[in-house]
Amino acid sequence: MSTKQPPQNRVLKILKSNVSLAPMAGITDYVLRSMVRHYSPTCLLTTEMISSEFLNQNRNQNEILKLDNSHHPIAYQICGHKPYMMNAAAKKLSPLADIIDINMGCPVKKVVCGHDGCALMNEPELAYDVVQAVKEGTDLPVSVKFRLGFTQDNMNYVKFGQKMQEAGAEFITLHARTRKQMYSGSADWSKVKDLKNNVDIPVFANGDVKSIDSAVQCMEQSAADGVAIGRGVLGDPTLIFRIEHYFKTGEKLAPPDIFERLQMMKHHLDEEIELRGENVAIKFFRKFYAFYISSIPNASKYRGVLMVEEDYQKLCKYFKEIENDLYALKSA
Ligand SMILES: Cc1cc2nc3c(=O)[nH]c(=O)nc-3n(C[C@H](O)[C@H](O)[C@H](O)COP(=O)(O)O)c2cc1C
Question: How many CB atoms lie within 10 A of CB 181?
Fold first, then answer.
């Protein structure tokens, strides 16, 4: 009988928590990562996907690449299907990252038609070469994020995960939907268990974890090593910390109330302005309003104004007006 031990998984040494921030293009930029980190000193942060082609063309991607010392541990996610490009991208990002993550789950038509993202699940041999090329470009652990498969009829996530492990991936995040589902239906956390039972590397479950309760259910159903959270942090950058806190202590901390959310919204906007400049940031930020003010009375009226206002001082004045309305309602 062989006494050879499997090599120690290096990702386990990097992870300080079993919760991660999932990558979201146009969302998990420097500012949002910093906000999530402010509450959670331990979760694994992930950048949004970085095109290996753009990176190699030296296009300015400051908002994505920018790093603060506090962001560690952090995975930089790259996207592409050309092994030499992915190798070069890994080389460039290695001085910043703790883990290089490869996007094999993006379902967007433009990405998939370019053979990137989830398209790689249909080309496991190429995906294997991509992982190997990335490994040759970095000494850091390499991880892969993918889906259940391309369609319901071709859910190859177990075989695909095994292949990624064979290629040298040391960590997997599985979004428990198919490409065809895009973001519809619900994530099937029980499928993550099939993968977990068939690979030796850590697996994080992803999809639809939006609260402490859903994180607990996801961990139970998936038997995963952790959960990756994307949309749940929109409007609530404390969620990851609150889940970590519950896992550690069993105590359920309350989500931020609407007044705290309004403060977070203002801070988020101010930081985006610092990063991108006022004109760009004010338009860029519009996608976040709905999440910060969801579920408050008159939210759609407020949104209507916020979505078109271009003047920073007027926006600040309107934030104050919303706050005053809410105080008035509270004391009525
Ligand atoms: C706006 C948006 C952008 C996304 N961008 C990326 C990306 O760059 N890379 C990636 O691997 N997944 C990306 N995803 C997918 C998320 O990481 C995650 O897998 C998905 O949203 C399901 O998790 P959730 O329900 O916690 O949001 C994106 C999702 C959204 C909604």
Answer: 19
